[in-house]
UniProtKB/TrEMBL annotation:
Sorted UniProt keywords: Hydrolase
Organism: Niabella drilacis (strain DSM 25811 / CCM 8410 / CCUG 62505 / LMG 26954 / E90)
Top-level taxon of the source organism: Bacteria
Organism lineage string: Bacteria, Pseudomonadati, Bacteroidota, Chitinophagia, Chitinophagales
GO MF annotation terms: hydrolase activity, acting on ester bonds
Claim: ATP-binding is one of the keywords in the record: no
Residue span, Sialate O-acetylesterase domain: 103-326
InterPro entries: Carb_Esterase_6, SASA, SGNH_hydro_sf
Protein name: Sialate O-acetylesterase domain-containing protein
Length: 332
């Protein structure tokens, strides 16, 4: 093990010490799976997989296959490697005095399901996540809470953003996660172009997002984007143009962020409305054409009764799926 000193004092820098807890946890989990194999006669890949990988496809018997198992171990290894990386290797994020670790900044973009329309009950209004902040309407960093977005204050509710940030904060246990809400309800993808104006909200969705990106970058490095949009383009004419427009949007965002490999995770539209298949079919083609992108599944998620917006539990689950997808991309 390489010894590094702090300010010449000769002491071993804590950031370079072996990640003891991570190693023990990984070893214990392997031993548990191996013990299950001996006790039940089932291979490790026949045991049910963890909740945060729920977006992965199941076999018909409800057990995870070898591909899912490999992805599961990949995420664990990413966490292990991140925990023992030397300073600067997890991203050149600026530190803020008085807070532990670095700042990782993520953009939340799309329309109403990203903004969140889940019903706000006491269960959700009181949720806070340690080391998760949000950039508010005044471009001030405040503790993240529901609702994150302010596009339409009268209807804003529970979305995927907070659970996304909380899931990342558990993995990056020394870092602060900064969420930048940019979604605007009711916007077609054509509104996410430079200069485009949304008459309903009296905003410029793309231009405003870039301004917030620049404000957020003063705190830390942009580490990724999650995108959930397409309900407004679920018609035969718009759907045909959707992939090209989304590809162009990703290129613009990456250029503004100064990172041509910026992870971009896209969510499927809800599977509860037939016409949404038009956009979902286009989304499925994205990872094949644009590198460092990934599509997470909406399978099993339900609407709140309006056949359009995810209910609060589904929006919360979707945030975890977005986080799992982001971790996979960051591993590449």
């Amino acid at each position: 093990m390489t010894r590094t000193s702090c300010n010449g004092c000769g002491r071993l820098n804590k950031r370079h010490r072996p990640p003891f807890f991570a190693i023990v946890s990984l070893t214990f989990l392997y031993a548990r799976l191996h013990t299950q194999t001996l006790a039940t006669g089932k291979s490790a890949c026949e045991h049910r997989y963890p909740d945060f990988l729920y977006f992965m496809p199941l076999k018909s018997n409800g057990y995870m296959n070898n591909v899912v198992l490999r992805r599961y171990w990949s995420i664990l290894l990413v966490s292990l490697l991140l925990s023992c990386s030397p300073p600067g290797r997890t991203g050149s994020v600026q530190k803020e005095k008085g807070r532990p670790g670095n700042y990782q900044v993520y953009l939340l973009m799309g329309q109403s399901n990203m903004a969140g329309r889940g019903i706000l009950t006491g269960e959700y209004t009181g949720i806070r996540a340690e080391r998760v902040l949000m950039l508010d309407r005044e471009n001030e960093w405040v503790p993240a809470r529901h609702p994150l977005h302010f596009d339409k204050p009268k209807v804003a509710g529970v979305g995927p953003g907070l659970s996304f940030g909380a899931a990342l904060a558990k993995v990056y246990s020394k870092d602060t996660i900064g969420l930048v809400p940019c979604a605007v309800g009711g916007t077609a993808i054509s509104k996410w172009e430079p200069g485009a104006f949304d008459e309903v909200t009296r905003t410029h969705p793309y231009d405003d997002a870039i301004l917030r990106l620049k404000a957020a970058r003063k705190r830390g490095v942009i580490k990724g984007v999650i995108w959930l949009q397409g309900e407004g383009d679920s018609n035969p004419v718009s759907a045909k143009k959707y992939l090209a427009r989304l590809t162009a949007l990703i290129e613009r965002i990456r250029k503004e962020a100064g990172d041509p490999e910026l992870p971009f995770v896209v969510g499927e539209l809800g599977r509860y409305r037939t016409q949404y298949r038009l956009v979902n079919e286009q989304l499925a083609l994205l990872p094949k054409t644009v590198p460092f992108t990934l599509v997470v599944s909406s399978e099993g998620l339900v609407h709140k009764g309006d056949t359009t917006h995810f209910d609060s539990p589904s929006a919360t689950e979707y945030g975890r799926r977005f986080a799992a997808g982001m971790l996979l991309l960051q591993k590449r």
